[in-house]
Design goal:
With 521 residues, this protein is of the alpha+beta class. It is 50% helix and 9% strand. It has a single domain, classed as Cytochrome p450 (Orthogonal Bundle). Strand 4 and strand 5 form a beta hairpin. The protein is globular and about 75 Å long. The protein binds protoporphyrin IX containing FE (HEM).
C-alpha cells in the first residue's frame, strides 16, 4: 500500500475515533473541549508517545505550556493524557476537588507485577485498601513519637557517613583525587537507615549493599521497562529479551528481600518479647504489615504484597532524599556565603563543644537551615511530576473538559521553580525568601498548599507524600552535621555543574565533587 493511502486511512480512523468519543460525552459537557494540545500524527504518533515514560516528556510539556497555557492534552496510546502546569488549576483539582482527583490509573503490565497488582500505597486505587496502607505507614512509622525511636539509628548512620567521607579524603589534601563524591556516600547511608527502619536489624555492610544494588537496579531500569507496558501480549514476543531482563531483576529482588521478611516474621512468631529486651530493638515497617487486614478483599497481606510495600518504602525513602541532599550540598558549595551562614547558625546553637554533633532537638532552632532546604526543594524538586491521577467522573475546570478515566499529570517544576508570579527572580537561589515570607504574606510557609499552591515538591491534596516529615528530618539532620563537621569547597577550576539528568528522579548530571576540610570550631 502506498504511503499516502496509509496516511489517509490513519487520518480517517483518528477523525472517526475522535468524533465517536465526542458523541459519548454526556450532553451537559457537550460544549466543553479538552485542554488544547499539539497535533500529532494520528495513531502512529500516539503509539510513539506511548512507548516513552512520561518522565521523558517533561521538556516537551514545558514548551507546550508556553504555547497552550495552563493545561495541555496529548493523545498517548488510546486515552487523552492531560498535563496541568498552572498552580491555581492544580489547586482547583487536587484540593477543591480532591476526592475526584485522587484515583490512580490502572497499572501497566510491569507496575502490575512490581506493585503486586496495585497493593502498595502509591499505586493503590483511591479506596479502603489505600486508606489502610497509608494510615499504617503514617501512624506506625512516621508519627513523631515513633520517629524518635529511630534516633539511635540516625546517629549510627551519621557515623557511617562521616567515616566513609574521612576515608575518601585521607589527610584532607587538596589534590583533586582526594575530593569526595558525596552521592555514593549519601546513597549508601540512606539505605543503611531505611533498611534498618524497614527490617529492624542492623545488617552488615554486605547485606545492605545487596539491598541497595537490587533496589537501584529496579529503579534505574523503570524507564527502560516502560515500553513493556505497551501492548504486553505483543511485547512478550517482540521484546522477549527485555521481559527476561525484568524477570531476572525481580528474581534477584525476591532473593534479597524475601529472606529478610521471613526472618522478621519468624522472630514475631517466636515472640517479640525476647527481642524487645534488646536495647537496640525498634519496631520495623515490615512488622506492622503482617497483621494488616485488607478491607477490600477481607484477608491479610500476601508475601508478594508485603515485599512490594517494603520495596516502595526503600525506594521512596532513599532516592528522593539522597538526591535532594546532594542538591542542597551543591548549592552550599556553589555559594560559600550561604554555607557560612548555615555554619554560624549551627554554632550559635551548638556552641564550642568540638566533639558534639548536631542533635535532633537542635534542628528546631535552625530556621535558616530549614530555609536552605526548602529553597533547594523549590529550585530542584526531585520529582518533576506528582504521580498520575485518573478521574472518577467527568469534570469541567476553568472551562476545560476533563473526561472520566482521563489520565492527569501535574507538573511540579512549573509551579515553584519557574513561576515569577509567586517568586521574585525564581531561578536564583535565595533561602531568605522562606524567612521573610516571600510569596506567603510574611507567614510561615505552608508546603501542603492547602490554601494556595506556591510549590509542590511533595505533591498536594489527599495523596500528598506521607513521608514528608521524615524526609525533612533526614535532610535537616544530615545537612546540619555535614556542615558542622566540614567546610565544603569546590574543586579548583571545577564549577559546580547544575545540569540535570532524568533518572528515577531528576539528578545532577555531573555528581557533586568537593573538598572537605574538618572545621576548627
Ligand atoms: C525529599 C524527599 C521526598 C520527596 C521530594 C517526595 C515526593 C513525593 C511526591 C511528589 C509524591 C507524589 C504525591 C502525589 O501523587 O500527590 C510522593 C508520594 C509518596 N511518597 Fe514521597 N517524597 C519524599 C520522601 C518520601 C519518604 C521518606 C517516604 C517514606 C519512607 C515517602 C513515601 C511516599 C509514598 C508512600 C507515596 C505515595 C502516597 C500516596 O499515593 O498516597 N516519600 N512523594
Amino acid at each position: 500500500m502506498e504511503t499516502w493511502s496509509v496516511i489517509l486511512i490513519s487520518l480517517c480512523i483518528s477523525a472517526l475515533i475522535k468524533a465517536f468519543i465526542h458523541l459519548l460525552r454526556p450532553s451537559k459537557y457537550f460544549n466543553y473541549k479538552l485542554p488544547p494540545g499539539p497535533w500529532n500524527f494520528p495513531i502512529i504518533g500516539n503509539i510513539l508517545l506511548a512507548r516513552k515514560s512520561v518522565l521523558d516528556l517533561e521538556p516537551m510539556i514545558h514548551d507546550l505550556h508556553k504555547k497552550f497555557g495552563p493545561a495541555t492534552t496529548l493523545h498517548i496510546g488510546f486515552r487523552p493524557v492531560i498535563f496541568i502546569c498552572d498552580r491555581s488549576l492544580a489547586h482547583q483539582a487536587l484540593i477543591q476537588n480532591g476526592a475526584v482527583f485522587s484515583g490512580r490509573p490502572p497499572a501497566g503490565a510491569v507496575v502490575k507485577i512490581t506493585s503486586a497488582n496495585q497493593h502498595n500505597i502509591n499505586s493503590a486505587s483511591y479506596g479502603p485498601n489505600w486508606r489502610l496502607l497509608r494510615r499504617n505507614l503514617i501512624s506506625e512509622i512516621i508519627h513523631p513519637s515513633r520517629l524518635k525511636s529511630y534516633s539511635h539509628a540516625r546517629k549510627w548512620v551519621l557515623q557511617i557517613l562521616i567515616d566513609g567521607l574521612n576515608l575518601q579524603a585521607v589527610n584532607n589534601g587538596d589534590r583533586d583525587d582526594r575530593a569526595v563524591k558525596l552521592r555514593d556516600h549519601i546513597q549508601f547511608a540512606m539505605f543503611c537507615l531505611l533498611v534498618l527502619m524497614c527490617f529492624g536489624d542492623k545488617l552488615d555492610e554486605k547485606k545492605i549493599r545487596e539491598v541497595e544494588d537490587v533496589q537501584r537496579l529496579m529503579m534505574l531500569n523503570t524507564r527502560r521497562f516502560n515500553v513493556l507496558n505497551f501492548w504486553p501480549r505483543v511485547t512478550k514476543f517482540v521484546l522477549r529479551k527485555l521481559w527476561g531482563e525484568f524477570f531476572e531483576i525481580l528474581k534477584k529482588q525476591e532473593s534479597v528481600l524475601l529472606p529478610l521478611i521471613r526472618d522478621r516474621r519468624r522472630m514475631k512468631e517466636e515472640g517479640l518479647s525476647q527481642a524487645k529486651e534488646d536495647e537496640n530493638y525498634v519496631l520495623a515497617y515490615v512488622d506492622t504489615l503482617f497483621d494488616l487486614h485488607l478491607p477490600e478483599e477481607n484477608r491479610k497481606l500476601q508475601e508478594n504484597e508485603i515485599m512490594s510495600l517494603c520495596s516502595e518504602f526503600l525506594v521512596a525513602g532513599t532516592d528522593t532524599t539522597s538526591n535532594a541532599l546532594q542538591w542542597v550540598m551543591a548549592n552550599l558549595v556553589k555559594y560559600p556565603d550561604i554555607q557560612e551562614k548555615v555554619f554560624k547558625e549551627i554554632k550559635g546553637v551548638v556552641g564550642d563543644e568540638e566533639i558534639r554533633q548536631v542533635t535532633e532537638d537542635d534542628l528546631q532552632k535552625l530556621p535558616y537551615l530549614k530555609a536552605v532546604i526548602l529553597e533547594t526543594l523549590r529550585r530542584h524538586p526531585p520529582a518533576r511530576f506528582i504521580e498520575p491521577r485518573a478521574l472518577k467522573q467527568d469534570m469541567v475546570l476553568n472551562g476545560f473538559y476533563f473526561p472520566k478515566n482521563a489520565i492527569i499529570n501535574f507538573m511540579v517544576a512549573e509551579m515553584g521553580c519557574w513561576d515569577s508570579e509567586v517568586w521574585d527572580d525564581p531561578t536564583s537561589f535565595r533561602p531568605e525568601r522562606f524567612l521573610n515570607g516571600e510569596g506567603n504574606g510574611g507567614e510561615v510557609f505552608d508546603i501542603t498548599g492547602s490554601r494556595e499552591i506556591k510549590m509542590m515538591p511533595f505533591g498536594v491534596g489527599r495523596r500528598i507524600c506521607p513521608g514528608q516529615d521524615l524526609a525533612m528530618l533526614h535532610l535537616e539532620y544530615f545537612v546540619a552535621n555535614l556542615i558542622w563537621h566540614y567546610e565544603w569547597k569546590a574543586v579548583d577550576g571545577d564549577e559546580v555543574d547544575f545540569e540535570e539528568k532524568q533518572e528515577f528522579t531528576k539528578v545532577m548530571k555531573t555528581p557533586l565533587k568537593a573538598h572537605i576540610h574538618p572545621r576548627s570550631k
